Amino acid sequence: MKNINGVDNKLVAGIDIGSENIYCAIGSLIPENSRIKLLGIGKCSVKESFKKGSITNRNQLIEQLETAVNEAEIMAGKKINSAFMSLTGEHVRGINTQGAVALNRNNTNGTIDNNSITQKDINHVLELTQGVALPPDRDILHTIPQEFIVDTLEQIDNPIGLSGRRLEGHVHLVTAATTAMKNLVESAEEVGIKINGLVFKPLAAAASTLSKDETKLGVSLIDIGSTTTGVAIYNDGAIRHSAVIPIGSASITNDIAVMLRISIEEAEEIKIKYASAKASLSSSKLAIEIPSDNICSSNNKISEHELSTYVEARMEEIFQLAQNEINRSGINNSLTYGAVLTGGGSQLRNIVPLAKELLEMPIRLGKPIVNIQGNKDFADKPIDSTLLGLLLWPYHSNEHKPLNRTIISWIEYFKQIIKEFF
Questions:
Q1: Least C-beta-crowded within 10 Å: which of 87, 155, 257, 333?
Q2: Could you tell me which of 228, 126, 217 has the C-alpha nearest to residue 171?
Q3: Which pairs with CB-CB distance under 8 Å and at least 24 residues apart come from 3-12?
Q4: pLDDT by residue (tens digit) across 234-261?
Q5: Residue 18 in 3-state DSSP?
């Protein structure tokens, strides 16, 4: 990666595209302790060019992406030409699968050797786990090892060097729509940014918010975005279940706008200032003035409590859907650390008490606190979790990198073919 004065291979960049804003962050790698130093952040409002994980206006998105990247580069004082980019949407699916290989190898004498396990054996197993039947319009985004089994020895994190007759691998596959991935990659290339990898949003958020103890003893990460909510459930140090719920905090804003007959912008402002996720913790005496040009009745005021009643109803729906995914994981009784809430939607006032009541488990807000320097009082809110997790992704990419040809490598492959012809 080049900076203004030359080459800097320690730079890393992340691009988080949401339904409301595009964020770009630039940081420098500190390999000695697997940390990141934040150098700069850029932001641009999306304005109807991206919704529910899909591009709705490509030309507009490219302009907004360039604005966010330029802003981050100016703040950091460095130029970037590659980045990791977040991905979410209703098209993203997570499944658990497994594969196994025999380890006995014939030697030159015709006898069988019982050699130790190598990286080649692990790669072979992971390739077999990807042998699931996928529709032609889908591809594998992540292949995440959960555990390895050597003969009868279970729950092995790294089997290299061990001996045995059979190696079995259990993995979590994250798949996504090929077209959605391709469009994101090509849009970034239009502004001169090569995408090093697409990262499922909850995984990126988990990288910057979850501790090793949480992933080991069980935790559910709930990433509440604008139009989608991502769920990633961890136990025994690995992800066990992931899903995307097609509803987010924008639904609350829309409910307020419809109820009070005001604009989306005015509804968002009222939500941020006055809304409480738990109505019983709001005031019935505090009156909120409705913009005078949009009076829905003879009374142009609404109490904070009445407003929050509608907000709570929508949040109950989101948490109920999240609870369904937690139950579907089959390890809902093994989540020692309960749930961690991240994303812009988790910043709603009194959301933690409501989540504790509905999910009946420990709840905390997930702020980017893991291995990040320079973000205190600057980019340390739940909404920053995914963006800063993208900066940490180089430390995770080896264990999350699919071995088959992904959409990114296909694009590079066809480009090379074209070059050879011309």
A1: 333
A2: 126
A3: 3/77, 3/78, 3/79, 4/77, 4/78, 4/79, 8/78, 11/78, 11/80, 12/36, 12/83, 12/84, 12/391, 12/393, 12/394
A4: 999 999 999 999 999 999 999 999 989 8
A5: coil
Instruction: Say how many CA atoms lie within 13 Å of 24 toward its Cβ.
Output: 29
Helix (H) or strand (E) holding 148: strand 138-150
Instruction: Report the C-alpha dihedral over residues 41, 47, 50, 53, rounded to 10 degrees.
Output: 70
Task: Report residue 213 as tokens.
Answer: 């103890």
**169 touches 98 (CB < 8 A):** yes
- Helix, coil or strand: residue 272: helix
Please list, in sequence order, all residues whose beta carbon lies within 8 angstroms of the beta carbon of residue 164, skipping any fewer than 6 positions away: 103, 114, 117, 150, 151, 153
Give pTM, 2 decimals: 0.89
Q: How far apart are CA 275 and CA 288, in angstroms?
A: 10
- Per-residue pLDDT reduced to its tens digit, 376-414: 888 899 999 999 999 999 988 654 444 344 445 544 544
d(CA 310, CA 276): 10
Max alpha carbon distance in the chain (Å)?
95
CB-CB neighbours of 286 under 10 Å: 13
Distances (CA, A) of 171 to 2, 97, 128, 399: 36, 6, 10, 11
The domains located in the chain, with CATH, are 93-177 (3.30.1490.110), 211-369 (3.30.420.40)
Give the pairing of strands 153-156 and 82-87.
unpaired
